[in-house]
Every structure is written in C-alpha cells, then in structure tokens.
Design a protein that fits this description.
Elements (H helix, E strand, L loop, with lengths): L1 H24 L6 H25 L10 H4 L1 H22 L1 H26 L11 H10 L3 H24 L10 H28 L11 H8 L1 H7 L14 H18 L13 E7 L19 H10 E5 L7 H10 L12 H5 L9 H5 L4 E6 L8 H8 L3 E3 L18 H15 L5 E6 L28 H25 L6 E7 L7 H6 L8 H4 L2 E8 L11 E2 L4 H8 L6 H12 L2 E2 L4 E2 L10 H18 L14
Parallel strand pairs: 1-5, 1-6, 2-8, 3-4, 3-5
Antiparallel strand pairs: 2-7, 6-7, 9-10
Helix pairs in contact: 1-2, 1-5, 1-7, 2-5, 4-5, 4-8, 5-7, 9-10, 11-23, 17-18, 21-22, 22-23
C-alpha cells in the first residue's frame, strides 16, 4: 500500500512538471482558451488522483480503483466536496504551487491514515489534529521508521521536482494579470465551503450517508462512505447520539428510579476515621497485556510472573473498549465511571470534557472525604488536553515528565521507565501522604510503540520460537518491556508494604499494543473467547498493602466499573451514580457495543431488565456529557 501511495504521489509530481513544460513550450502555438482548458483538465486529474490516494488508504489489500468500493455517487460527492477547497488554494497560491501543496498535504494525510488504520484498526479523525502534541503522535510517532523514511524521500523528490520547475520555467511571484480570476476562485471556494459547513447534514442525508453511528464500527462507515466524506462528516459529530427520549422529565424519572433502587439495597456506611481511609493508586500501564494468551508462542520462561500471580488471586482481565491506542478514553472510563461503549468509535472524550460546566469523576467524591488528588504521568502534559481535563476533574496537582525527579529510561531515546515513575510515586506518598489519604493516578509510557529498536528494552529471548512467528522479533522485543514492568511492579508493591496507611493499588492495561497488523492477522488467542473479544482483554488486578486477600466480583471487568468498585471496597461513601455502576456491574460484569460478558468472561444475552439498566446508564451519561446536566446531583456524595 505504501508503494501504491508513493506511485500516486510521484504521478502528481511528474504531471505537475510535464504539464508546466507542455504549457510553457506551446504557449505561442495554441490559443489561450485551449491552453487554459488543458490546465483545468490537469486540475481535474489532480483532484481525482488525490481523492484516490486518500480513499485507497481504507482498503490496504485492494488494488483497483476505490470507486468500486464506495459507489459512483459517493465518489462523485467526494470530488464535489473537495472542489471548494481546491478553488480556495488555487485562488491564493495559483495552479502550480497550489497543486504542489495539495499533493504534499494529501500524501501526508494518506500515509498517516494508512499507518493509524493498520496499527490501531481506526482511521484518522478530525480531532486527531486539534492538539499539536497529537499531530506529532499521528504524523511521526505512529509512523514506523521504514515508513517515515519513505515519506521523507518522497517529499524530497517532490521538492526537487518543484525546485527544477522554478529554475527552468516559472517565477514564484504571483502574476498580476491573474489576480481577478484568482480572487474570483478564492471567493467561490470560500462561499462554497461556508455553504457546505452549514448544510452538510442535509447534503449527507440526501445521499443517505451516516458519518458515524452508535453501535456501528466507525471503520465500516469510513469504508462505505470513503475517507473524505467520513473525515469531514465527523468534524461536527458529537461523541454520543442523543437518546430519542431525552428531556428534563425523562432524566428526572431515571434519577428517581436509580435513587430509589440504591436506597433500597444499600446500607448506610460507618464513617471511617481519617487514619483508616486508604490511599488509592491507579496505574494505567501503557499497552500492558498478557502475551502468553497467544496460542502459537512457545516460552523459555514466564515474562510476567508477578502480575500473573496477582491476576489469578485478585484480578483477571479488563475488557478494554480500545485496541492499539486511544489511551485517554480508557483513562476517562476509569476516572468517571462513564463508558466508551456508549460513544462514537474513535472520539476522544477528553475533547468534550474540557467544555463541560461540571466534569464528574472519582476525584470530587474523594476530596469531599478528605483526600488529596494527584496525577502523575511520565510524558508531556499537553497530550490529550490532560492539563485542562485534570483541572476540571479537581486534581490538585499534575506532575509530568518535566517535574519528575526520576527520568531513567530502559535505553537511550526511549520513554521513561516504569521503575522510574514507580520510584516517583513512592516518594510522593512518603512526602505528601502522611497527613491525608491520597488518590494517585498514574499513566505510564514505557511500553508505548514503536517496537522497532532491538536496543529499546534489551533483548532476552522469552519467545522460544520467535523466528516462526510473523514479526516475532517485534513481539519478543515488546515482551522484554513487559518483563521490565513486571519487575518494577514487584519492587513497587514491596515498597508500599512499608507504608503505614492502608493502600490499594489498581493496575490495568489500557489496550493491546500497536504491533504490526500482520502479527494479529496470523496470531490466535488461547482464551475461551472469540478473537475479537480477546483483542480487547488486558491485564488487571487489585492489591492491598496489608496482605488482605481481595476478592474480585468477576474474572473480567469493564473499566467504567473501577471507580465505583474501589470506593465500595475501601469503605468510602459512594455517589449514587457510583452505587448504580456497581449494581450494573453485578448484572453485566463487562460489555462493549456488541458483546456482553458474564462473570466467567463468557458471552451472554441481556434480559429486558438488564437492557433497561444500560438504557438508564446511557441516558445519564448523555445528560452529563452532552446534555443539560439535569442529573448532576447523583454525582455528589450525600452528607
């Protein structure tokens, strides 16, 4: 696919130079109208080729024109929608510079979409580009070295072409005689873009296009409609579809039903004295997953013996809503008790959280009971808008890599090691956790992609038959990182055993790693679940520093239940909403948009009562995230 994209890219560059050469050489032989017609024909070819480049990235194994995949009407609409943008660019920059710029931007966008789709199974979204840090991740960190090299070489090639064009035939100064035409083109393009922006829902409805739908994989929408239509269509999408019955009255009715049910089944809790209130430590372990579930792999030794033991005694699997990326969504599930399984695929809910008047989370209920709340992340603060989001949630402090004392890495050029962030955590608890209990929310980075350098984690052959596996070297390299995490977890828990205050640790992986797509295509999971479910099951455990044997309610858990579970487990006062999530957990231990799991992790069908539970859950979540927040009272701890 990368080679195909490069061929389209080079085709446009060649067309640009040869077209200019032809028009330059023939300017005295043909009429102006004829030459202008040739020029606009070339513009149309540029538009079609660039569209094919973008559309083809959603079909990595397809080698025929994408018009056969998305249909003639969608392909024509794709061209029509892009024309205003092209006119605007031509108006400001002219034909040659404009097409050169459009070709470069299209190629970068196409390669980025292809790489993200092959690594994470998700296409690019407009919100991937709302933060400069996320642009860096999408355009560079996500592109493996080989593909980045190809991209750079291609850009150098086009630059050389344009430079040659400049030297031989063309002055880059804007010709004054074209200003009227170019001004007209720019005005038409601008007006058309404004018209489309305010009317695209009606246009899409006319063509029967759904950019995103709840309970439908976003990948399917992109493949049915094409990249361009879905990418633009999602720019005005909410992260949730409004319930048909949403109103102040229906929310009030749901709140009353939830409150009455919780009052009937929950007994009043005994107030804990301050010294009894436990520290709560959340550890989101980047891309941590149990690799021994791969059926084809043979092992020289257990790479994660400590975590395996904890999973067996007081943990199991986290049924993650994500695969290969979108860490912030899993984090959002854990902190808020809301579920990504009610949202549009791929939408980062932190984008919406920054706009909320009240952003519910576990933080405020804990702070009302004397807790201090600190977030610790060994990477950049700006990523996923965490600085703004954590303020909204009520965290009193956010410590990133800049403020950390320990910065050791596994090797030069990699992310900060888990051992370093765990040392930072222990020192924080020793320094700030003596007088008041602490919520410490950690997000690690050690095992983040890419997994392409043999020196990233050192190289122990945990996988005996790595040569027999597709991308076995990459898989084994990634496992070296997991083994380092396992050792660091063991050291952390040993240190926490010395802390006098009761301390809970909740450890979970956010998603499976972004290994090459070929690895997952050839691998099978040695679990009792189908392969789709298994690709969303990460490692999870709960631990307490006093040696108490902890029981977990099920072998698999959804991340949105963690906050309510730890509040109840700690003997703390829950909000009514947290009580409700715990109640739903007992009925539906884990779920995603299409699969519901029982306590053993087996698929189950919902009863009518269970469907009503999720309908209320959905309604309340929509109200607080995208509605009028009529239900805000059930997110407060009752005095």
């Amino acid at each position: 696919m990368i080679v195909f994209l490069i061929l389209l890219f080079v085709f446009n560059g060649t067309l640009l130079i040869t077209g200019r050469w032809f028009l330059y050489k023939q300017k005295d032989k043909f009429s102006t109208i004829f030459l202008k017609s040739i020029q606009w024909l070339m513009n149309g070819i540029f538009l079609i080729v660039n569209s094919e480049l973008l559309l083809s990235t959603m079909y990595p194994n397809t080698y025929h024109p994408v018009i056969f995949e998305i249909g003639v009407s969608n392909f024509i609409l794709t061209l029509i929608i892009q024309i205003p943008f092209y006119l605007l660019i031509y108006g400001f920059l002219g034909f040659y510079i404009g097409n050169a710029l459009l070709t470069v931007l299209t190629f970068i966008l196409g390669v980025s979409n292809y790489v993200k789709f092959t690594l994470q199974g998700l296409p690019l979204f407009i919100w991937d580009f709302l933060s400069s840090k996320m642009v860096t991740d999408v355009l560079f960190n996500m592109v493996l070295k080989e593909q980045l090299l190809i991209t750079i070489l291609s850009l150098i090639l086009l630059t050389a072409m344009i430079w040659g064009l400049k030297k031989l035939f063309y002055s880059w100064h804007f010709p004054t005689e074209n200003w009227k035409l170019r001004g007209t083109l720019a005005a038409i393009g601008c007006i058309s873009m404004v018209f489309f922006f305010f009317n695209f829902e009606q246009i899409y409805s006319k063509f029967n296009i759904q950019a995103a739908e709840y309970n439908k994989p976003i990948q399917k929408s992109y493949q049915e409609n094409g990249f361009v239509l879905s990418f633009l269509g999602n720019s005005n999408q909410h992260g949730m579809v409004m319930p048909a019955n949403y109103s102040k009255e229906t929310v009030a009715e749901a709140v009353t039903e939830i409150k009455n049910k919780m009052d009937a089944i929950n007994k009043p809790k005994v107030e804990l004295i301050k010294e009894q209130r436990p520290n709560i430590i959340f550890i989101l372990s980047e891309a941590f997953w149990d690799p021994t579930t791969i059926k084809e792999a043979e092992w020289t030794q257990d790479p994660i013996p400590t975590i395996h033991g904890l999973m067996e005694t007081s943990g199991g699997y986290l049924f993650s809503p994500e695969f290969g990326g979108s860490t912030a969504n899993v984090e959002w599930n854990v902190l808020t008790g809301f579920s990504s399984n009610f949202t549009i695929d791929g939408y980062i809910q932190y984008n919406r959280t920054t706009q909320l008047k009240q952003a519910p989370s576990i933080v405020e209920p804990l702070k009302s009971q004397g807790y201090q709340a600190i977030a610790l992340h060994d990477y950049q603060k700006e990523y996923y808008y965490r600085t703004e989001v954590y303020k909204k949630f009520g965290f009193s402090e956010f410590i990133s890599e800049t403020e950390m004392t320990h910065h050791d890495t596994n090797n030069i050029g990699t992310y900060i090691s888990d051992a370093s962030i765990f040392k930072e955590a222990v020192e924080l608890i020793d320094k700030k956790g003596k007088d008041n209990p602490m919520l410490l929310h950690m997000i690690t980075m050690q095992n983040h992609y890419p997994y392409t350098s043999n020196s990233k984690f050192g190289q122990i052959d945990y996988v005996k038959n790595k040569e027999a596996l597709v991308d076995g070297d990459q898989f084994n390299l990634y496992i070296n990182g997991l083994a380092d995490t396992d050792k660091a977890v063991k050291e952390l828990l040993t240190s926490l055993e010395k802390v006098k205050r009761p301390t809970y640790v909740v450890f979970y992986g956010d998603h499976l790693p972004s290994l090459n797509n070929e690895f997952y295509e050839h691998a099978t999971f040695n679990t009792n679940q189908n392969q789709v479910v298994a690709k969303h099951e990460t490692s999870y455990f709960v631990w307490k520093n006093d040696g108490e044997k902890l029981e977990v309610p099920s072998e698999v858990i959804s991340p949105n239940y963690i906050a309510g579970d730890i509040m109840e487990r700690s003997g703390l006062h829950q909000t009514i909403f947290q009580q409700y999530t715990t109640y739903v957990q007992n009925k539906i231990p884990a779920f995603n948009k299409r699969v519901y799991l029982d306590k053993k992790g087996n698929s189950k069908k919902l009863t009518n009562d269970e469907e009503e539970l999720l309908d209320r859950y959905y309604l309340i979540q929509y109200d607080m995230m995208y509605g009028e927040q009529y239900s805000s009272k059930i997110f407060e701890v009752e005095s």
